[in-house]
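Every protein is a chain of amino acids, and every chain bends into a shape of its own. Below is the pair of lines this work produces for a single protein:
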Amino acid sequence: MSDAFILLLGAGGHARSCIDAIEQEGRFRVAGLVGADAETGGTVLGYPILGNDGELPSLLRRYCRALVTVGQIKNPDTRIRLFALAQQFGCELPVVISPRAYVSRHAKIGRGTIVLHGAVINAGAEVGDNCIVNTSAVIDHDAIVGSHCHISTTAVLNAGVKVGAGTFVGSNTSIRQNLEIGSCCVIGMGQVVTACCVDGTQLPSVGAGEL
């Protein structure tokens, strides 16, 4: 394990997946996490929750490297705010790629994006800043994903798909090749998307009345 410390911004369930990928990759050592008031003083997988949002500026000054580890479903606002704050304090926001994922050397991945176990990002694909490419998601060749998106577990973006910034694509969703999905959309789990979606589209999870 490296001695290069990284501060994790978020201490919920998604942070556990991030910690596992960071440990497996071995480039960074988790310094600790920033969580909600009630979480401060606790631990996540043995790592300390060092403080809450009020203490975040001092923690960002102390550590020069950070990763946003808050999850994202209905909107990306919290992740965007934390990413911008880390930038403001001059932190490095590295890409984290699980060694159990495959990312083509011909793909492009933006700052602060995490690619989790089993995910595939093929040649010519582009993923923006501060994204989550979750477990076993597939981003096929020449697909483009904007910043602050979450491509959830086992979701499939086929060749040439374009996804706008801030969009969530749910588990087991499949998007037909060459479609455009707008910004700030929520595509619920299990959808088979065969037509373009405008900005702000909300598609419920298949078989459920809500997202």
